[in-house]
Amino acid sequence: MSRDTNTSSAEVVLGFLEEAEPWRLRSPQFPSKVGGKPAWLSQRGLPSLSGLECETCRLPMVFLLQVYAPVSGQDRTFHRTLFLFCCKTPECYTHNDSRCMKVFRSQLPRKNEFYPYDPPPEDEPPSDPEHDQSVLPISGVKLCWVCGCPGNKACSRCHTVTYCGKHHQTLHWKHTHKKECCSQ
Questions:
Q1: Less crowded by CB within 10 Å, the N or C end of the chain?
Q2: What is the bridge-based pairing of β-strands 33-34 and 62-68?
Q3: d(C-alpha 108, C-alpha 141), whole Å
Q4: If DSSP codes are grouped into helix, strand and coil, which group holds residue 133?
Q5: Over its length of 184 residues, how does the chain's per-residue pLDDT go in tens digits?
């Protein structure tokens, strides 16, 4: 990158990363984060399996990051999160072609059916052993174990782990689930 010496330049910080306790990365804490699984803001309007495919190679994209970005002074965007998904296939990335990346937006007004009106407490909430991270509360939408996106295909042996599609089921089976399946 070259810089014109006749123009003034200011440093711009777009963000920074820091370690966080696992409970702070859950949806009720409205996290911004890189990696892992998306902490969906709402159980409605989640992207479909076909909506999460790379438009170049048609393989499922992976979650890269999310940014909590509410719009001040607008009730309908009191809670607003942007989710970035990208393809894992290097050949899909070409100059001026963004078909291998997708951004999804989820937003809610301050008064909604999912979150309290007041901000979440700064202290760690009491642990709930019955809370299942693979199912969203209220709607019961099942999520893919690999990517955290909606997934209604279950492991045919144990029927407890769900996936968004065959690609993620095969990936999880080869790497860990084969050893864990039906072990407990």
A1: N
A2: antiparallel
A3: 18
A4: coil
A5: 444 555 567 887 777 778 888 888 888 888 999 988 898 888 778 888 888 899 999 988 889 999 999 998 999 999 999 999 999 999 999 988 999 999 999 999 999 988 888 888 888 877 654 454 554 555 567 888 888 888 888 998 998 899 888 888 988 898 889 888 876 5
- Reported as type and span, the H/E element at residue 79 is strand 79-86
Pairing status of strand 153-154 against strand 162-163: antiparallel
HSE, side-chain direction, 13 A CA sphere, residue 5:
0
Question: In whole angstroms, what separates CA 103 from the centre of its chain?
Answer: 11
> To 5 degrees, how large is the angle CA 90–CA 93–CA 94?
135
Distance of CA 139 to the CA centre of its chain: 17
pTM of the model: 0.74
Structure tokens at 77: 């965007």
Please tell me what DSSP assigns to residue 130: T
Collapse the DSSP code of 91 into the 3-class scheme (helix H, G, I; strand E, B; otherwise coil) and give the result: helix
Q: How far is CA 100 from CA 51, 53, 54, 63, 103, in A?
A: 12, 8, 5, 12, 11
Residue with tokens 């003034």: 8
Q: How far apart are CA 98 and CA 178, in angstroms?
A: 35
Q: Report d(CA 145, CA 89) in Å as an integer.
A: 21
